[in-house]
Amino acid sequence: MNADHIVEIEDLHYARGNRPIFGGLNLNIRRGEVTAIMGPSGTGKTTLLRLITGQLVPDRGSIRVDGEWLAGLRRDGLFELRRKIGMLFQNGALLTDLSVYENVAFPLREHYELPERLIRHIVLTKLHAVGLRGAAEMMPTELSGGMARRVALARAMATDPRILIYDEPFVGLDPISMGVIVRLVRRMNDALDISSIVVSHDVQEINTVADSSYLISEGKVAASGSPDELSNAPSELVRQFMHGMADGPVPFHFPAPDYTSQLIGNGEGEGEDDA
Amino acid sequence: MRELWEAFTGFLRTFGALQLFLLRLIVESPRVLMRPRLVSQQIFNAGALSLVLIMVCGFFVGAVIGLQGHSNLARFGSEDILGLFSALSLMKELGPVITALLFAGRAGTALASEIGLMRTTDQLSAMEMMAIDPVIRVATPRFLGGAISMPLLTAIFTSVGILGSWVVGVPLLGVDGGAFWSQMQAGVGMADVWEGILKSIVFGLAASLIAVWEGYNAIPTAEGVGRATTRTVVITAVVILVFDFMITALAISLG
To answer: Which of B123, B131, B133 has the CB atom closest to A93's CB atom?
Structure first.
């Protein structure tokens, strides 16, 4: 165990049904840094986050978070550990029956018996940090995608976690909102002295904030290092991904029977349930 | 044959998981009851918002019993026992059963789709990540809210139903008002009342459990939530009618 690492993953195996997602993944996340986890769609990036946070249990291998070995934790211990982790879901996952203010206050009210004045103080501070103090009384349905994600960030920070995890924070945002989130990721990490894990496949954006990156493909780490190191990596796959090339080691075509014979239509290779 | 066997073991597994789920809801209930605002909010959602529906339906069911009862009893010259007839049929059968079916349609579907959508939009996962147990924060208060509302709604349904039967029987069809009430008072025993209360409690627990379970385990897609909502109504209806038969048989054999 290395004290510099806030997350250590060794020889991780995980399969969904018969489909293996990870086969011997090794990965360390350094304390105090912004670490990016990148990879083509469907490589199990979100699954990896769920494994790190103990929402899923690996088939084999070990995961340590902040020195604690996940497999050794019971439900109470896991919940205790999760208090140190703030997580931002892809769509924000705000509680739709509560206002923005109450959403941020939610973890505080659930976990601590605090006087209302203190809760108000904390909530307004967190909302101010993401620039949405003025939206405190709005309902989640009235927010744009970018705003919802910022509120979710304020909520994730409400209990002052040590680790912030972002699941695809840039997806589907306009350039301005994207810029705001990119800046927030960096600022939160440095101002609060926490560690951040950002799962994303937006290469350009992530390269501007990440201290180091992992590129995951086919269940293993395909490459790792600083953004520059990744951009200049010799591997075909890394180049394809980092420069957004349509074809390469990850083929453009999903595996299919031979095109000509399928078009000529002698029946071979056609799906059985074609109506 | 193998498919049949798999379906059977699958059913047993689901049934076992359902029982464990019920056990957790019951174990967590005292803790949730310590936060009365969580539960009262759900009693309002499941109970108060169903009130108008229950009262309107109760009135018309009672009125129909008044009509049917009068025309059939009149053949034997026994219109006077219309009050007793309506009270017993509403209290022991129609009150609990129809309230439970209406409850499944109004409150059960709302519960199942609400929880299902919370699952679909990651709200339940987000709670887990905030170290907040959604079974405690989401499922148990809704289960309790439903289970507490059902007996109250049944009582209201039955009362309004008796009123409906009176309106049709006494002022409209000319049954003697004194006989209507006195026959009821003389003929309805505590055992009849208890049978109705027992049914409403059991139906309330079953309907709430099914709705919360279906929502909680909904497949997180639009189709999955739709299916969970449909299943809530269908399964509740069947379970209620089976339980109704069993409790009635038990009550008669003990009576």
So the answer is: B123
CB A56 within 8 A of CB A16: no
Backbone angles phi, psi at A243, to 5 degrees: -105, 5
Residue B52 neighbours by CB distance under 10 Å: 10
In degrees and rounded to multiples of 5, residue B254 shows phi and psi of -80, -30
Which residues of B make CB contacts under 8 Å with A?
117-118, 121-123, 125-126, 128-133, 137
The pTM is what? 0.82
Per-residue pLDDT of chain B (255 residues; tens, 9 = 90+): 888 999 999 889 989 999 999 999 999 999 888 888 889 999 998 888 899 999 999 999 999 999 999 999 989 888 888 999 999 999 999 999 999 999 999 999 999 999 999 999 889 989 988 888 899 999 999 999 999 999 999 999 999 999 999 999 989 988 888 989 998 999 898 989 999 999 999 999 999 999 999 999 999 899 999 999 999 999 999 999 999 999 999 988 987
Nearest partner of A163 among A94, A91, A63, judged by Cα: A63
Identify the three-state secondary structure at position A53: coil
How far apart are alpha carbons B151 and A260 in whole angstroms? 68
Pull the structure tokens for residue B156: 């209201």
CA-CA distances (angstroms) from residue B111 to A239, B30, B115?
Answer: 49, 21, 6
Residue A160, classed as helix, strand or coil, is coil
Tokens of A251: 């083929």
Best A50, A75, A95, A102 member to test B by mutation, with max B CBs in 10 Å, is A95
Cβ pair A216, A241 in contact under 8 A: no
Report how far Cα A58 is from the mean position of its chain's Cα atoms. 18
Strand partners, A212: A35
ipTM of the complex: 0.77
Number of A–B residue contacts, CB under 8 Å: 49
- When pLDDT is cut at 50, 70 and 90, the band that residue A274 belongs to is very low
